[in-house]
TrEMBL record, chain A:
PANTHER family: EXOSOME COMPLEX COMPONENT RRP4, PNAS-3 RELATED. One of its GO terms (biological process) is TRAMP-dependent tRNA surveillance pathway. Residues 181-221 form the K Homology domain. InterPro entries: Exosome_cplx_N_dom, Exosome_RNA_bind1/RRP40/RRP4, KH_dom_type_1, KH_dom_type_1_sf, NA-bd_OB-fold, S1_RRP4. It holds the Pfam family ECR1_N. It comes from Mycena metata. This is Exosome complex exonuclease rrp4. It is found in: Nucleus. Keywords: Exonuclease, Exosome, Hydrolase, Nuclease, Nucleus, RNA-binding, rRNA processing. One of its GO terms (molecular function) is RNA binding.
From TrEMBL, chain B:
It is found in: Cytoplasm; Nucleus, Nucleolus. It comes from the Eukaryota. This is Ribosomal RNA-processing protein 41. InterPro entries: ExoRNase_PH_dom1, ExoRNase_PH_dom2, ExoRNase_PH_dom2_sf, PNPase/RNase_PH_dom_sf, Ribosomal_Su5_D2-typ_SF, RNase_PH. GO terms for cellular component: cytoplasmic exosome (RNase complex); nuclear exosome (RNase complex); nucleolus. Residues 22-152, 155-219 form the Exoribonuclease phosphorolytic domain. Belongs to the RNase PH family. GO terms for biological process: nuclear mRNA surveillance; poly(A)-dependent snoRNA 3'-end processing; rRNA catabolic process; U4 snRNA 3'-end processing.
């Protein structure tokens, strides 16, 4: 496993104990001004008489106090703190990439980088032999033919259970089992909501940006070769075998994957334009996938593309 | 006395050149360690501890899932090379298990576990070097790692060790001092001044306790300033890095944008 020590702490020349007890004591005028105020657990944000507490805060002795480190956000009277690093908080309609952890009666458990495993019901997947087909007992008995432990899939958040666990569905031809590629994990905050989370880069690489921070980088599949509504081909959709992937595509996949890793280690939010710029930069500078992971190359890459965009 | 080191000499200095109430130098590193959701390396003088936090995540043990709150699981590992004489401690060592249980009970009232029903928060403490004040380093490190993982805390927990040499109280003891004099570890939440942990392994005169306890609570505020500073710097750095990318399309106005559809 490759990991980065992002933001190594620079040795501080002087030791000091800043006397900043009042630094964050927001008076009302200051608070109205908004902006990204930074806060941390135990820091008083405002009075609970004038404001309502939202996520990342709690109320004690008539004060709204932050419980996580992050930025203070305010919508009218509601004060929330958006944590800078946290687990994925699902919302209905989000596109996520997950991994099957368990097969249970009529459902799969899916790890989706959330606080609990997600649930994928047998009734929320497309089964071979027509989209509208009823579920039979035989389907329950052969659930492992569709998804097995360890399989990766792309799905949409359908609903929530009472305890906050999410329920997924793959009832679209865009969703389903993943193959021909590799998974990259980044902090979920770095994946922004985009018009489409299915990207195709000109270098022959498809990307699925899961909002949970799981990103699938795979070989490009042409539109025409994708299984159509009529010819729902169970063999192809639930296949465990990779297609043939040529060397140049393999290189491109690992290059894109490493670009994402480098950007994530520098905490740069992902967008399609940023990825394209970065890919062009690596081609211009003739950097191979492995070279990208060295610290100076990564720093240079991030410095260049964040300046450009 | 002869070869024995003086705990506190006539000039009011301790064996490592500190004054009575002086704390050792603290360094904090909050950078990402491997795949942990939050991690911290903290040093108090020569004591160094690495804490990694995973979660909240699906509880792997069914028996430990609680339907109304998250379960906190603490595991402590002591590196064989961390002490003066090389010694391998097994994971089942009673002292280590006790320390893990202490850390767990210190943080249970501080972490807002009720927000994460049926989940589990794993805290892995790895002791890299020890020179006294081990529990204090473990607790401070855990606070930092939890904050770094974005787990909601009521407040930072700041721990410090205090001891007494004849009648003079001292703070932040080294191993040498810990072996010689009675000591007590106190963990405070500086915001409210609440104390989440007081623990002693030695006998301490009851008359001396109050003074040490009060001093340790004061020292907790100093450690709080350090912890706060480190978390603030890390957070503002990350916020800065996020801002250096293209402007957010959604951002805080996510919900407003949705209303238009």
């Amino acid at each position: 496993m490759i990991s980065f020590a992002s933001f190594p702490v620079q040795p501080e020349p002087t030791r000091h104990f800043p006397d900043d007890e009042d630094a964050m004591d927001l008076d009302d005028g200051d608070f109205e001004a908004g902006g990204s105020k930074i806060t941390w657990p135990g820091e008083t944000i405002t009075s609970s008489q004038a404001y309502m507490r939202g996520h990342g805060t709690y109320v004690e002795s008539e004060q709204v106090i932050a419980s996580v480190a992050g930025t203070v956000e305010r919508v009218n009277k509601l004060v929330t703190v958006r944590a800078i690093r946290t687990k994925y908080n699902p919302e209905v309609g989000d596109l996520v990439v997950g991994r099957i952890t368990e097969v249970q009666p009529r459902r799969w458990k899916v790890d989706a980088n959330s606080r609990q495993d997600a649930v994928l019901m047998l009734s929320s997947v497309n089964l071979p032999g027509g989209v509208q087909r009823r579920k039979l007992e035989s389907d329950e008995l052969q659930m492992r033919n569709f998804f097995e432990e360890g399989d990766l899939l792309v799905a949409e958040v359908q609903a929530f259970f009472s305890d906050g666990a999410m329920s997924l569905h793959t009832r679209s031809l865009k969703y389903g089992k993943l193959r021909n590629g590799q998974l990259v994990t980044i902090p979920p905050l770095l994946v922004r909501r985009l018009k489409s989370h299915f990207l195709t880069l000109p270098c022959g690489v498809d990307l699925i940006l899961g909002l949970n921070g799981y990103i699938w980088v795979s070989k490009h599949v042409k539109e025409s070769e994708q299984e159509g509504e009529e010819g729902f081909d169970a063999e192809a959709v639930y296949s465990n075998r990779n297609d043939f992937i040529d060397d140049s595509t393999r290189t491109a996949i690992s290059r894109v994957a490493n670009i994402i890793r480098v950007l994530a280690s520098h905490f740069v939010p992902l967008t399609d334009t940023l990825l394209l710029e970065a890919y062009e930069w690596t081609v211009e500078n003739d950097t191979d996938a492995k070279g990208l992971l060295s610290e100076d190359v990564g720093d240079a890459l991030v410095a260049t593309i964040t300046a450009r965009v | 006395m002869g070869s024995r080191v003086e705990i506190l000499n006539d000039g009011g200095f301790r064996s490592d050149g500190r004054r009575q109430y002086e704390l050792r130098d603290m360094t904090i590193d909050l950078s990402q360690q491997g795949v942990a959701d939050g991690s911290a390396i903290i040093t108090h003088g020569l004591t160094q501890v690495l804490v990694s936090v995973f979660g909240p995540r699906e509880a792997k043990m069914r028996s430990q899932t609680m339907h109304d709150r998250a379960n906190i699981n603490v595991e402590v590992g002591v590196a064989a090379f961390s002490t003066g004489e090389r010694r391998k401690r097994s994971r089942g060592d009673k002292r280590i298990l006790e320390m893990a249980a202490t850390i767990k009970s210190t943080f249970e009232p501080v972490v807002q576990t009720s927000l994460y029903p049926r989940s589990q928060i794993d805290i892995f403490v790895q002791v890299l070097q020890q020179d006294g004040g081990l529990l204090q380093a473990c607790i401070n490190g855990t606070t930092l790692a939890l904050a770094n993982a974005g787990i909601p805390l009521l407040d930072f927990v700041c721990a410090v060790t205090g001891g007494v040499h004849s009648t003079s109280p001292m703070l932040d003891l080294t191993l040498l001092e810990e072996n010689d004099i009675p000591h007590v570890t106190v963990a405070v939440m500086p915001k409210t001044g609440k104390v989440t942990l007081v623990t002693m392994e030695t006998r301490l005169h009851v008359e001396r306790f109050e003074e040490i306890f009060r001093l340790a609570c004061e020292a907790g505020k100093v450690i709080h300033a350090e912890i706060k500073g480190a978390v603030r710097e890390r957070t503002s750095r990350l916020v800065g890095a996020m801002g250096s990318g293209p402007p957010r399309t959604g951002g805080g106005g996510d919900d407003d944008a949705m209303d238009e559809y």
